[in-house]
Amino acid sequence: MPTNSKEAQSVDSTHKSSCYFDPSILKTAKKPGYFHKLEALEYVHFKRPASDEHQYLDIGCGSGGFTKDALLEKVHPCRRIVAVDREEILLEYARKHASHSNISYELFDIEKDDPRALIDKYGQFDRIYSFLALQCVRDLKNAYRNMFSLLKQGGEGALVTLTGSVITDVMNELHCTREWKDYVPDPTEFYSERFFFDAPIVAEMVEEAEREASAVAGLNLVSCSVYDSQWIMPNVDAWIDLYVPVFKLDAKIPEEKRGAFRKYCRDLLENKTTSRTEGVTMRHSFVVVHLEKLSENPPKANPIST
């Protein structure tokens, strides 16, 4: 069984890093998202029961904390989880801080890489999971084509994707503000064109994109659920302390401007979050997709119309 040891090398090592958040912060940061990621799986009803002979693929595992501390227990029993990400810096962190004998970490970009090397090393997968990663995939059709190749016949996918959120709206507003534009990264460079910034989530548009991509890839769209989730922290400052360092929003802010920057972030968040007796809630919007591979034969490409 492959492990996270040095001899278990990644199937691809040609990736250029574009990582926009700091994995080391996640070690001590509170993780309100763990519960909500697992909660999203309630929208997926797998047709095939779990088995200790199954192996699963986790796409966009990031720093590995959720894979090891939450997903592994949730999908038990299984033979192995192969957790992949396109950022080597995140995988290095995962191998160091989230190692487990039943998890193998591999460098792989679901959007751009050829899946054959991964299949040659591990074989096809009984299930594919992905949590808050596919919002960064611009070519969803090609990502789904790769999932088709990676799944066994009868295999299923449970994909939880962010479609918009208060924090990304705040990031976008910060970047569009003259005072902070040169310091704060442009979030539109990291997220796909399907992502909603400062706009209501249009469920019909999200669902249509999923229907089209799954059909092109030859995958059966079993279900597609679009909904809002309210995450809670004790106060606005707790949200700032979580997200500002994770997304490196203040990495380029001069020391003399950091106080003003934090105040500006606080003002934005106070206007976009909801204060309750138990804490401050922040909206995160999701689409949860259940896919199924019914046939080993991929669909034929449509001829280009002239």
TrEMBL record:
Question: Mind listing the UniProt keywords for this protein, alphabetically?
Answer: Methyltransferase, Transferase
Q: Which GO terms describe its biological process?
A: methylation
Residues of the Methyltransferase domain: 52-160
Domain of life, per the record? Eukaryota
The record's section on CDD domains has: AdoMet_MTases
Give a yes or no for keyword Transferase in this entry: yes
Q: PANTHER family recorded for this chain?
A: TRANS-ACONITATE 2-METHYLTRANSFERASE, TRANS-ACONITATE 2-METHYLTRANSFERASE-RELATED
Name the record gives this protein: Putative juvenile hormone acid methyltransferase midgut overexpressed
Organism of provenance: Rhipicephalus microplus (Cattle tick)
